[in-house]
Amino acid sequence: MTTLGQLGLWLALLIGAWGTFVGFYGGYTGRPELIASARRATYALCGVLVVASIGLLVALLKHDFNVAYVANYTSRDLPTVYVLSAFYGGQSGSLLFWAVVLSLFGALAQWLTSRKYDHLLPHVAGVTCAVTLFFVIVTLFAANPFERLPFTPADGSGLNPQLQNPGMVIHPPMLYLGFISITIPFAFGVAALLSRRLDTGWLHAIRKWTIVSWLFLAIGITLGMWWAYVELGWGGYWAWDPVENASFLPWLTMTAFLHSVMIQEKRGMLKKWNMVLITLSFLLSIFGTFITRSGIISSVHSFAQSAVGYYFLGFLIFIILAMAVLLWLRLPMLESDAHLESMVSREASFLFNNLILVGIAFSVLWGTMFPVISEIVRGTQVTVGPPFFNQVNIPLGLLLLALTGIGPLIAWRKASVKNLRRQFAVPVVSGGIAAAILTALGMGNFYAITTVSLAVFVVGTILQEFVRGVGARHRLHGEGYLQAFARLVGRNRRRYGGYVVHLGIVIYFLAFTGQAFRVDLEASLNPGETAEMQSPWGHTYAFTHIGVSQYDELNRLVSAASVEVARDGERMGIMKSEKRQHFICSAPIRPCPRQLRKPSFEPSTEAGIRSDLREDIYIVFAGVVEGTEEAVYRFTLNPMVWWVWFGGFVLVVGGVVTLWPGTTIRTVGEGDTQGGYAAQLLESKSA
Amino acid sequence: MKAKYKFLFGAVLVGGTVGFLMTSGIKETGVYFLTPSELAAKVSADPSFHDVGVKMGARVVHGSITRNVGTQTITFQVTDGTQTYPVVYRGLAPDTFTDDVDVVVEGRLEPDGTFRATTLLAKCGSRYETTPQA
């Protein structure tokens, strides 16, 4: 099967090169037979890469340990789901994964895009084939998953236990889907530039792709946080690690892009900026893969150092140069149709939203690269950690949160005093009251008060929109409230889906605030002894060490420590935290006799976690004092963590509403100066 | 056009804020990342360097780890081949911390030559791949 896989890759090399050539050349000359061939090339490319992927999957499932990749990432005892996830768990497999998914997206873009955009599609095929070709080249020449060993080991070395977690099965593919799908909007941007068709057509063609890829990134990042939280055992979910930052960067620029395209669609402004943003997003998605693959920045996450990094660096530089030239050539065609009329307008608030998002992205990139930059400039490495990122990004994030409330409601062009009062009076007063209440309650944390107050303001604007919209439909169309609500959302999916996404973002912000109030306690306890701690909500928790037991499980030896937990004197039950020593067997016997076991990897920790809406109890068992039954623990009370996952859920719901098929596109009419849907509806009725 | 200039002013303000936050952030929280030899050179050139928090990346000397679980203190030695420092760390060590792994310790070098670490990170060179079987 690996022969078949290898063959698939070589065919992909040929077809990818052909598709790139006929895509661009066919687009340039407009010759129908070349254009048709480019389209067929994207389908064929997808086909041969699927065959290559099946080759790798079969080798994994058949435990063909003669294949180096299979031997390095799996073992006989590994549960099947993790065997399958090993496909993208290692470096070369994940590159193949990129190639196959990108070719699939490339084929889908050809197949699903409306015939209206036929003038763009040959160039789109050229770009997707070219990018896929790059990944195929890296896979073939720098990191080939089909490489064989000179001998066949009895068993593989197994998958890192920290990756043996359900979150880790879906987190990487989600993130990859987000990364990879950015290529499609980018390809349309390039196609618009090359074909000189720089109207809003290409923006309409990619609208869904943009939201899909943004959503995948958001889901991937959130799942990554969840995985870090349950698996890494340090009690948090975000450490500003280079790999985390790498996933965050394209999300930031894509968020900026999602907003700024609306300005181009409705007002014909920001044409150059949008091209720059989508190019940046694409570059950052490649860069993200690059820094996780090259080990250029020392990170706890870094993969093995390899030549792969040079391929990525070369590719990045090529894209930057090519895009700079292309943009420069088309600059005269990217002039704005309109100018900014007032600072108090939708346009201005979106511009600031963009500035801040790009500012955040720049600071995160700078902080991530700072060890490398300082080494080049000053000769010594200087690192910046979470304090840097928090110090810079909390104020910027709060400004952004405020704009989340302002942007959707402020009028286009120039907001009148009447518009401002109508849209913002109630939310601003509510936010102010919230701040006053928190201060009166004695909360001293400035950022926390600001966050809650802004959150109330934003939620106020969103609720007001729903209430007014439903009310307006009820009055004007005589619909019942439920029906009015359903129609309101159903007929304006983009607007109301967007509001729900904003709601999800607000929930994230509130949850992040909880981290400011986290408390930790390290304690060494004999059986029966109790450690007590105070939660930020005012509860007293008592943790009583019960004992440590040892037992075998599937592919590991487990030491489990049990703790009895009580809140305010009331028993809550027993929580367990584990230390796991994974092993591999030197003979294919099950269960593996003790003398044949070889420990694989360092021991790993399973934290004990109990969540409720207010706070998480997070228990880490660190080990026993040699020769005694005394156990060392770290207890953490982590406020509001549940809301991070809930925020992710709300965001996905909003995204799905936005994506639901059948949305019609409105262009801004003269009547739409008020912002807000209810106002529009009323005006259109009275006109 | 007036609005455009006002916006540019606002943009400069936002850009300036980002720049200011970043430079002050780096000044206040940036930490030198040194090898033991580089640290030795810095300290001998400027003794006040003892008061500066640094990060040191080095390898744990085989067999040098002693753990006192009762006081939750770990002492071990790190080296880059030329310079060796004893390290004292109080707290929980990460799972990956064992003999011969690369670690990053953050803390201060005391005048007596002991490195007092407040954080201990063990880097597995290839975290997601198996360590080579000896």
Short description:
The complex is a heterodimer of chains A (687) and B (134). Chain A is of the alpha+beta class and 687 residues long.
Overview of this protein structure:
The complex is a heterodimer of chains A (687) and B (134). Chain A is an alpha+beta fold. Chain A folds into 4 domains: 160 residues, no CATH class; 175 residues, no CATH class; 160 residues, no CATH class; 123 residues, no CATH class. Chain A is built from 20 helices and 11 strands. In chain A, strands 3, 4, 5, 6, 7 and 8 form a 6-stranded antiparallel sheet that branches. Chain A has a 4-stranded antiparallel sheet with strand order 2-11-10-9, with no helix packed on it. In chain A, a hairpin with a 6-residue loop joins strand 10 and strand 11. With 134 residues, chain B is α+β, with helices and mostly antiparallel strands. Chain B has 2 domains: 30 residues; 93 residues, OB fold (Dihydrolipoamide Acetyltransferase, E2P), CATH 2.40.50. In chain B, 28% of the residues lie in helices and 34% in strands. Chain B has 2 helices and 7 strands, in the order αβαββββββ. The C terminus of chain B is likely disordered. At the A-B interface, helix 13, strand 1, helix 14 and strand 10 of A face helix 1 and strand 1 of B. Strand 1 of chain A pairs antiparallel with strand 1 of chain B.
Question: What features would you highlight for this structure?
Answer:
heterodimer, A: alpha+beta, six-stranded antiparallel beta sheet, four-stranded antiparallel beta sheet, B: 134 residues, alpha+beta, OB fold (Dihydrolipoamide Acetyltransferase, E2P), 2 domains, five-stranded mixed β-barrel, 34% strand
Mean pLDDT of chain B: 81
Count of individual domains of chain A = 4
The greatest interface between two protein chains, and residues involved on each side, is: A-B, 66 and 47 residues
The stretches of 5 or more residues of chain B where confidence is low (pLDDT under 50) are 125-134
By CATH, the architecture of the largest domain in chain B is named Beta Barrel
Q: Quaternary status of these chains?
A: heterodimer
Overall radius of gyration of chain B: 21 Å
Distance between the termini of chain B: 71 Å
Which outline of chain A best applies? globular
What's the mean pLDDT score of chain A? 89
Task: Output the radius of gyration of chain A.
Answer: 27 Å
Series of H and E elements of chain B: HEHEEEEEE
Helix content of chain B: 25-40%
Name the beta content range of chain B. 25-35%
Number of β-strand runs of chain A: 11
